[in-house]
Task: inverse folding
């Protein structure tokens, strides 16, 4: 399995407005095997985080360069975390097939590189949810290919791709501190080793050349 990330600040001034938005995937980060509680039972699941930038929704962000702070107009971003699986019931597979507009073939399911997703445009659907702490946040509920006639988005941020096997090398140093901490909490982080870039089928999932063309 293999997955990179330099995401903008986690905190947002306000949630991204609900609705459908033109988007482009610019970062993929392998979170490793994360602990979660499901029906009061502890469970470990391999997770991946996908982050989209929204070219039609921008805001000013402070950027520090050479000791000087300047404000830069950048697209807003929104992320979703999925169990790293292409099993028949996996939410990641459902997201990808909706995005592609077609189901995976048996040959594709044997080995699919998530890295192929970087830089691809999509139409995402966003709704507002409320966290346990009472904070309103934006959540992705659907990803599909762009409607005919809608211009693909061009990435603003540099693509970011991180695999758990890289440990603290690669793009790890560019990740937000809170995300680094989350990765360090993964089961396999301490013994990360290089591995082939691919996602293989796994039915045990209870989750939920032109770069702008689909299927990937």
Result:
């Amino acid at each position: 399995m293999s997955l990179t990330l330099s995401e903008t600040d986690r905190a947002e001034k306000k949630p991204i407005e609900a609705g459908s938005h033109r988007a482009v995937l610019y970062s993929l980060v392998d979170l490793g095997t994360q602990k979660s509680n499901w029906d009061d039972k502890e469970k470990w699941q391999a997770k991946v985080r996908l982050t989209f930038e929204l070219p039609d929704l921008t805001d000013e962000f402070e950027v520090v360069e050479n000791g000087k702070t300047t404000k830069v107009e950048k697209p807003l971003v929104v992320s979703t975390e999925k169990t790293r699986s292409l099993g028949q019931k996996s939410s990641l597979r459902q997201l990808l097939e909706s995005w592609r507009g077609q189901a995976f073939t048996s040959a594709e399911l044997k080995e699919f590189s998530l890295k192929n997703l970087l830089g691809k445009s999509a139409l995402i659907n966003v709704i507002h949810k409320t966290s346990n702490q009472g904070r309103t946040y934006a959540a992705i509920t659907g990803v599909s290919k762009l409607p005919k006639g809608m211009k693909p988005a061009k990435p603003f941020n540099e693509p970011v791709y991180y695999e758990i096997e890289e440990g603290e090398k690669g793009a790890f140093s560019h990740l937000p501190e809170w995300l680094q901490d989350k990765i360090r909490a993964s089961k396999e982080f301490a013994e990360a080793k290089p591995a082939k870039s691919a996602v293989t089928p796994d039915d045990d999932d209870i989750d939920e050349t032109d770069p702008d063309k689909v299927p990937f």
Observations:
- Confidence is low (pLDDT under 50) at residues 1-12, 203-212.
- Residues 91-100 form the longest helix (10 residues).
- The chain has one domain: 19-191.
